[in-house]
Design a protein that fits this description.
By secondary structure, the protein is mostly beta strands. The chain has 2 helices and 5 strands, in the order H-E-E-E-E-E-H. Belongs to the universal ribosomal protein uS17 family. It comes from Wallemia mellicola.
């Protein structure tokens, strides 16, 4: 048996060990928006919307699922659109890890309300 055949056989027999945060195989990929950040270290809450058919009326109804997502670099901010992937359980409720941030929003402060006022036209005197 050649050395390459032995190495290939050893790789096929060796168990695949997932490291913390690693994803093996075809993982479930979801897109959602970040709802809450900063309460827990390296964890954020992501809301994922899906549409299901109502059993009685047959209309589409939007259902929301809140997921705890592992964010190793604390890069997520509230309002970001993100892609998350399923992974092994990292804690009791945390089973997803951050894959990418689609819409990074800068820390934008709200504009001053006085700047938003539209001046009313002055009444003409008679």
């Amino acid at each position: 048996m050649s050395l390459s055949r032995v190495a290939a056989a050893a790789q096929s027999v060796a168990p695949k060990v997932a490291t913390k945060g690693a994803i093996g195989g075809a993982a479930r990929v979801l897109r959602g928006s970040v709802t809450k950040v900063g309460k827990m270290d390296k964890t954020a809450i992501v809301s994922v919307d899906r549409q299901v058919e109502h059993p009685l009326t047959s209309k589409l109804v939007t259902r929301t699922t809140k997921l705890l997502v592992h964010d190793p670099t604390n890069a997520m901010e509230e309002g970001n659109s993100v892609i998350v992937k399923a992974c092994r359980p990292l804690s009791r409720r945390k089973h997803y890890v951050l894959d990418s941030i689609l819409d990074p929003r800068e820390n934008q402060s709200l504009p001053d309300p006085s700047d938003l006022r539209i001046p009313l036209p002055k009444k003409k005197s008679k």
